[in-house]
Amino acid sequence: MKISARDEYACSAVLELALNYDTESPVRVQDIAQRQRIPMKFLFQIMQILKRVDIVRSRRGTEGGYTLTRPPSQITVGDVIRSISGPFVQLSCLDSGNLADDCGKQNPCQFKPIWAEVDRAIGNVLNSVTFEELVRRERTSQRQLMYHI
Q1: Is the pTM of this model over 0.85?
Q2: How far apart are CA 14 and CA 31, in angstroms?
Q3: Is the dihedral of CA 80, 85, 89, 90 positive or negative?
């Protein structure tokens, strides 16, 4: 599995929305791009994908922008990466989720169970980290950087 720049940008965009979830005000795409250092070209594409899979919603107009469709505690890093890039381990024999699928090889494939196990292991890690947890981590690291005089 390779985490692409697009995957990272998508996670950063969702993190920015999660950081602003309690305000209930939409976050402008320009603000997301600036705060998270995401090129606008990529961000527009990413937000359209996240909107299509119902992770974010948009509002038009002068008070417009993006918000999460559900609380950060209900969105995982795995949700975002899968919506942007598809399955964690991308093999045609795993696409159906059925390990009994025949890929046309004469002998039974000895690798298929290994790839399925790798996919499950990656999924377990990425699906266990919610954006609520990432917000907590972000706020904790910001507090540690504050200096009081």
Answers
A1: no
A2: 13
A3: positive
